[in-house]
Amino acid sequence: MESYNSSFLWTLMVVFLLNISFLSVQGLGVNWGTRATHPLSPDIVVKLMKDNGFDKVKLFEAEPFVLDALRNSGIQVMLGIPNDFLATLASGVRVAEDWVTKNVSAYVSRGVDIRYVAVGNEPFLKTYKNMFTNATLPAVQNIQAALIKAGLGRQVKVTVPLNADVYESSSAGVPSEGNFRADIHDLMISIVQFLSDNAAPITINIYPFLSLYADPHFPIDFAFFSGTNAPVVDGSVSYTNVFDANYDTLVWALEKNGFSSMPIIVGEIGWPTDGDSNANLQYARKFNQGLMSRIIRGQGTPKRKTPPDVYVFGLIDEDAKSVDPGNFERHWGIFKYDGSVKYKLDMGKNRTLVPAKGVRYFQKQWCVLAPGASESDPNLADSISYACTHADCTSLGYGSSCNGLDARSNASYAFNKYFQTLNQQKGACDFHNLSVITKIQPKTGKAGCEFEIMIDLGKHEKARKTPASAAAGRLQGYGYLAIVAFLLSSIVGWVS
């Protein structure tokens, strides 16, 4: 009997240890942007993240309505500071102290689990022409000092989300030749040294889609995770995808400059679904499923086997984002503007994406080109242009989901976008007597091209919070170990 009890006890201990290992797997992160004309209620978004297994979120700025919704949610937060505020923060530590008091201390005390402050967002992009170069490090230093003064220096870490163009390889183009960009090399070393001294990570944004977008000759299969017939060979390592090669270039750059153990966070990575010929549902699903499978497996890269924390970009489409980089900027979400699912994604443990709950819409009516309106009417072109200046018509662009509609459907799509963006207001469907409101849903005849109805911001149903959500956040880390220890001690007493 004693032998049986011992075997039984060890079996249970193994099970619990395996559970500890499983529970300690790094969580799944996502970027939550709010540049939308009709944003989902923050309570609904938080519920959407929890329902889909996202327990880390990266925010681009401190918005009270967003932070309030994250209270006691069990979701860890990376809180961003926009580039435009870097110079102000760099001007003095008092400004940083005020910012931390208002945006970090106040919310941490109310149950928001802020883990990082992301100072700036890709501040060294070449397109910025050194606009933020001198302010970034002083801003980081002042925020760090403010966090320490607030007693949060251990709990909340600073980081700087950087674009992958801060490092580069030689003409050979292999990761082992990687180093920081020559024009900012010394600055990058100073930033990395400061982060290292404060036990803080470096954050990098990697976008294989942009490699393809910038170079029409880029080998398309190299952008995904399913292998390639033309790998990049770097010594004994063959790189079959751009993510591994890009990430390891950073690892090599850090190692060459004395930071071989520097922790890395992937702050943004994803694939858009519209706005370009390579931005479509099929490619987005292929890329994000490959990414998700790596995260589930805990897969690292050839140079660094330990997988980084990853924040998928992004959660929801944002129809008010700038399209200066390209029309695809408004279509990065794995969910549509209303939290509905774009495509099936295996999230592990037999889970797939589930849509947002409690969303309410305007009534089912659409603004379209009037049946009697002439396509040659001299006011038609200007009316379409006006509609698309004040609403998001990026889906009509070349290579996009609604590109190639006939003239009538094209005009109707533009009119409806404007009508919905203006909340179906009276007079919003008045284009020189060329338009009419219909209760019959128009059809485009193209898969993926739909006449949408916007969210009614006044009729959001509050998403229910999971009853145990507050406790869930406190159960992380040593909390799990404490529970397991208690259960094991009970089992030992029972078996003996």
UniProtKB/TrEMBL annotation:
Entry's PROSITE patterns? Answer: GLYCOSYL_HYDROL_F17
Which Pfam families does this entry report, sorted A to Z?
Glyco_hydro_17, X8
For this chain's UniProt record, which GO biological process terms are given? carbohydrate metabolic process; defense response
Q: Which protein are we looking at?
A: glucan endo-1,3-beta-D-glucosidase
Annotated membrane topology: Lipid-anchor; GPI-anchor
Keywords of this entry: Cell membrane, Disulfide bond, Glycoprotein, Glycosidase, GPI-anchor, Hydrolase, Lipoprotein, Membrane, Plant defense, Signal
Q: Which GO terms describe its molecular function?
A: glucan endo-1,3-beta-D-glucosidase activity
Classify the source by domain of life.
Eukaryota
Q: Lineage from the top down?
A: Eukaryota, Viridiplantae, Streptophyta, Embryophyta, Tracheophyta
